[in-house]
Structures are given as structure tokens and as C-alpha cells.
């Protein structure tokens, strides 16, 4: 046992050292960076539950996608510490908090076609996990998933870089064309001016020589020679302009082809980025908004609330006895329950409201222009809609209910504090017997 304790201490030291080597966060944080911050918070909670005393070390994990390898290694080391530590807490509440943190990381990872199935499967198995010893392989698998996600992000970044490089080259070619076209135009104008000057000179010469002609035959010969010279100059000019016109037409056709290709590539990239953005902001299982999109919407609505002082409320909705559904019917039934409840909630809400999967079996609703009383009534209708729906899985009736907590924004509360009030109201609804709606500071419905 002493040897195991020493090994755990060494693993803790290694984890501290590994975390200490990660770069500090920068000032510019993109979406992936924001997610890294959330992962960092989850790791800190886990290490706190493990009693390792290294929570402060987690804060130095960086905030951009280049730190995904650091997150991957931290998870691997965390799995080792959890496996070898003799002081690891194994109570139901500790295991629940650990799995909740891991599920939050899984749900927050960017989704790619190559990782969707693994992420869904891992999330389902984490929701079923009820013993600390079963977490080790799941944490290791999550670390591998983080590594694959980082590779996909790197590939995507490289592809985007290649596209932008190709686009830059095409734009450079367009710039060269316009430079050539400008040169050709100036040359054409200069050639026309030269022709005009030459003809004027020829006419002046004809007039001068005609005045000095001694006879009509001499005048005819002079005129014939001058006309031939003018005709030759005009012919040369037209020939050069015709060649210039042919070259310009060829350049125009090439330009049209390049512009068309550039437009198509730009359209394809825009569609791909829009699809990727949509996918990045959607929960892969329920197709609702995910926590990333909810956090963005919350910040925007909070700013709007501060400016216009229109009411704004938030509500947590949590499926009751979700673990029992997984235990009795399997994780596939749990997935069906999540998708079914999400569909009912979304169908019953206003278009102006945002419904997101917050993590695990918990949903969150953001309701603009809605005070706490109105929000409580609306959420209560959602609860009744879920309770009144018959759910079936493998020809079996599955009773599903939800508990809800509601809170409203006020001048003395920050957004996170409003969420905490709604979460406390949800906790009260659970303690009161579940399948009810509790408004912050009021009685259950």
C-alpha cells in the first residue's frame, strides 16, 4: 500500500510538471480556445475531487488549439493517477462529478465525421459509469479522442491554408491581367495618336507638294504615292490592333474562367465553413445548440438586456432518473430519451427562445423578453408536455419526466450567478420529489 502511495505521489508530481510546461493563455481566445478554458476548469474539478492538491496547476493550460496535445497528455496522466492513487474518493457523488466533467469535455469537443461515432459512444458509456475504477479506460479513450480531434483540426487548418494560398495566387494572376490590360490600352491609345499624327503629316505634305506641282501627271503621281503611304499606315495600325484585340479576347476568356473557378472555390469554402460552424455549434446527438453556442447567445442577450432592460430568463431542464433508464434499458434507450425529449421541448418553445443541451441529461433554455413568472409558466407547459408523452423503446413503455429550475436576470446578478440560481431551483425541484418546476425564490409547481 505504501508503494502504491509513492507511485501515486510520483504520478501527481509528473502531472504537475506536465501541466507546468504548458504555455500560458494568450489574450486572443477563439472558439477552440474558449473550449480549452472549459476543459481546464473540468480538469481542476477532477483533480480537486481526487485530493491531489494540484488544481492551481491546471490554470496554466493554454487557450488555443495548439494545446490540445497538452490536454491529451493531462488526461492520460489523470487516468494513471486515478488508477494508482490510494486516496481517490469513490463515493457516488464524487464519481458523478467526475463523469459529469468528462461528459462536458466530450460534449464540447469539435465534431468531425471521423470522430462523431466515437464521441457519441464514449458519452453514452460515461453516462452509464457508476464506479471510479471504470473511469480509467474511459479517460484514456477520451485522451485518444482529444488527440484525434487535434489532428483533424490541424488537417482542417492546413487545407484552409492551402486554399487561401491558391486563392492568393489566383488574385495575383487577376492583378497581373489588369496590369497587362492597362498597358495594352495605353499602347493602343498611343498607337492611335501616332497614326493620327502621321496622317496629319502626310496631308500637310500633300498640300505643300501639290502647290509646287508643275503638271497634272506630277500631281496625280504625288497623290497616288501619298494615298498608298496612308493606306499602308492604316493597314499596319489595324493589323496591330486586330492582334491586340485577339490577345485581349484570349485574356478575357482566361480571366472569366479564373474568376468562375475562384467564385466556385469561394462558394464551396463558404458552404463548408458554414456547415462546419453549424456542426461545431450543435450537439451531435440531439441536434440542439450545444454549450458553446449557448454561452455565445447568453453573452449577446446579456448585453442586449443591459442596453434595453427588457426581461430575460433562463431555465434548466433535467431528465429525471436518467441513470435508471440507462441501467434498465441500456444506453441506446438513454440516447432515444434524450432525442425524444429534445424534440418535444424544441417543438413546444418559441422561435425566439434558445434551447441547448448543457451536458449529459441536462438542457438549458434562454428566453428573451420573458420575465420569471412568464418563463415559469412556459417551462411548466414544457414539463407537462414531456410528462404527457408516451415513450417507447423496443415495444416497452418508458415513463419520462423532467425537473426544471427557472431564474430571471437582475441588475445585481452576473450571468453566471443567474445560472447558479436556476441550477439551485432545479436542485430544489429534484429534492422535492422531481417532475416539477421551481422558480428561484418561489414554491414549486
Number of domains: 3
Helix content: 55-70%
Largest sheet: 5 strands, mixed
* Spatial ordering of strands, largest sheet: 2-3-1-6-7
Morphology: elongated
* N-to-C span: 52 Å
Count of helical regions: 13
Low-confidence segments: 11-33, 49-65
What is the H/E string? HHHHHHHHHEHHEEHEEEHE
Q: How many E-type strands? A: 7
Question: What gyration radius follows from the Cα positions, in whole Å?
Answer: 36 Å
Overall structural class, as computed from helix and strand content, comes to alpha+beta
Strand portion: 5-15%
What number is the mean pLDDT? 75
Topology of helices and strands:
Blueprint: H1 2-20, H2 31-49, H3 55-58, H4 68-84, H5 92-108, H6 116-128, H7 135-211, H8 216-280, H9 291-308, E1 312-319, H10 322-329, H11 331-348, E2 354-359, E3 362-368, H12 372-387, E4 391-393, E5 396-398, E6 402-408, H13 415-431, E7 437-439
Parallel strand pairs: 6-7
Antiparallel strand pairs: 1-3, 1-6, 2-3, 4-5
Helix pairs in contact: 1-4, 2-4, 2-5, 4-7, 5-6, 6-7, 6-11, 7-8, 10-11, 11-12
